[in-house]
Amino acid sequence: MSKSSKCPMIHGAITSPNAGRTNQEWWPEQLNLGILHQHDQKSNPMDADFDYKKEFEKLDYFALKDDLNKLMTDSKDWWPADYGHYGSFFIRMTWHAAGTYRTGDGRGGGGTGSQRFAPTNSWPDNTNLDKARRLLWPIKKKYGNKISWADLFILTGNVAIESMGGKTFGFGGGRNDIWSPEEEINWGKEKTWLGNERYTEGRTLTYPLAAVQMGLIYVNPEGPDGNPDPKASAIDIRETFGRMAMNDEETVALTAGGHTFGKAHGAGDPALVGVEPEGAPIHQMGFGWKSNYKSGKGRDTITSGIEGAWTPNPTKWDNGYFDMLFGYEWELVKSPSGAYQWQPINPKEEDLAPDAEDSSIKVTTIMTTADMAMREDPEYCKISKRFQENPEEFQDAFARAWFKLLHRDMGPKCRYLGPEVPSEDLIWQDPIPSGDSNIDIEKIKELILESDLTISEMVETAWASASTFRNSDLRGGANGSRIRLEPQVNWEVNNSENLKRIISIYENIANESKSSIADVIVLAGSYAVEKAANSPVPFLAGRGDASEEQTDAESFAVLEPYADGFRNYKKDFVELRAEEMLLDKSQLLGLTASEMTVLLGGLRSLGIGDIGLGIFDENNTQLTNDFFDKILDTDIQWEKVGDELYEGRCLKTNSNYKATAVDLIFGSNSQLRAISEVYASDDSSSKFTQDFINVWVKVMNADRFDVT
Ligand code: HEM
Questions:
Q1: Which atom of ligand 1 is closest in space to residue 314's alpha carbon?
Q2: Ligand 1 centre from 302 Cα, in Å?
Q3: Ligand 1: which of 92, 239, 313 to mutate, most ligand atoms within 8 Å of CB?
Q4: Which atom of ligand 1 is nearest to the CA of 95?
Q5: Could you confirm whether 11 is annotated as catalytic?
Q6: Are 300 and 124 in contact (CB under 8 A)?
Q7: Residues 518, 482: Cα–Cα separation, whole Å
Q8: What residues have CB less than 8 Å from 589, skipping those under 6 apart?
Q9: pTM of the model as a whole
Q10: Could you read off the pLDDT of 431-461 as tens digits, one per residue?
Q11: What is the DSSP code (8-state) at residue 81?
């Protein structure tokens, strides 16, 4: 289009941030309710009845593996395979898909195929992985909906390892793709790539982040902020891998096993590498990092800036990594791209690696500063030495840690699909014995009635149990009744003395009715809602009770709520506003903004809220929309009386009320007020009741993957 033909008027919607100012830009402190609006049907191109599980069942799994295996050595001119084998490239892709997982909030990981989208598709650490994903397109096209991108990214790494002689522990499919970026994940507040404003008091990493710099998956390979100090690097590695749920042994196994394969790429001047995919011009068709250094590919590739292979046989599983690490002294050098790396002093001819394009040319191997940590850190060194001396132990540890890395965010094992799901139960899968779906519900209800527990007590206990569920890594929930075990039973939010009393009543009922405690907890809560609403509440039996042995108490500590706005609870040290924490919890529970609203209002009417906060009616035996009535009442004047604490006085009746910011946000935030108005309206009583019951049941059954 010629310049003169362009119209000077501004047209159209806000199609990019440059086109106009968004509400979020005008009011940066505004609650981002968008995190509850995302992933709706509108962004999903699949039909509403699309069922990935059913599609996956139609997949010829081994034919797919066969095709992936062939792809490994089918080198393409547009992005040639190093050593004629794409295996290591794909392993890095898979590792970087899964490695964004962090235990703190369970977010990140390879469970959604999010590496297709910003920001991770354009992170500096994912340089050139756009090519790895594109290499998979013909296979994705062939198998279509029967394999999600998310599953394909993960399975490809497994096939890659197997094709180079490595062992794997199994594969479970079942990851559903998303169709727009995850907006809820907080990757850090830095505004520049590789920026680092995430540490306080020495080197305490901001919660729940699990990478040292913006745009990295874990640590800086050159050492902390580029300082080539292996021991300091070990501290960062221990922290970031720990937040990925990996202990020292798993960390060494993974890093050494991963770097048994492939090479790093830093052939020349990094300034010659173009912009990342999201910033690239339209004709690059989604590819980024176009390099003008020589051919820009093959042996001329620039990725991390570090250059060289770790072992003499980079396309074969062996013990070369440890043999090199301990077989030589190492000196600090710079790569052709100017990055710090280490090289062996006087390597033997047989310990040189082949050139990526011509195996008759030999080049020196390398270690990154992070690799040197596997030798210089005393704990890592002990494990590395043990693995060097016991190759089979190393192989088994790698296979298991790799399996955990790839499946940690998938929730319970019953979600895994396909013929290669390992039969062994693993503690990090939070195993739960299967329950009985044929329990005598009426008898349990009778026993509950005899127990004298109040509606509030029954509702709160069921809530405390079920609301530990996180949609992010699908952990927690009411199944397993882990609320009666450490650490949950003693969490501050759970008011343990009272909880233990209630649980002992439920244990007796479970014994007498031969049902699980988990089912009794949920049934009691649902029965209480049923009575308060005077309307049936569906109940799905069949939960089991996990034992202490089946529970890794330490790993459950991360599920402890720092805040639970539904119970008007927040720990003192939490800096985020209570209403932001409510949004965070609602997103983790998979709630929409309307579901969050009706749930909170309904719970308040049943007496759920700390010491009367937000509870505007003393009769807590009826499910009513009273909360919304009061919140929207213009005769009530609110005043701030403490940190996130408010008092209201009704000008007409002189009645006094107490509430928190979590309560008042439903009157003050324009979007939440709009939803509250729906539930407060005179003609909405039955809608309010039914919507509350629906979302209640949704939370109670959020973890029932055994039946859905
Ligand atoms: C401390 C942790 C780690 C650090 C600092 C690190 C760093 C790096 C760097 C800088 C590269 C070079 C990328 C390039 O320039 O192409 C690389 C490549 C690679 N990494 Fe890691 N890595 C770590 C852990 C892992 C783990 C846990 C795995 C898998 C289990 C893994 C698998 C690989 C593979 C296979 C390659 C070769 C890619 C290729 O040949 O194209 N790494 N890593």
A1: 40
A2: 14
A3: 92
A4: 29
A5: no
A6: no
A7: 8
A8: 467, 469, 470, 471, 699, 702
A9: 0.96
A10: 999 999 999 999 999 999 999 999 999 999 9
A11: P
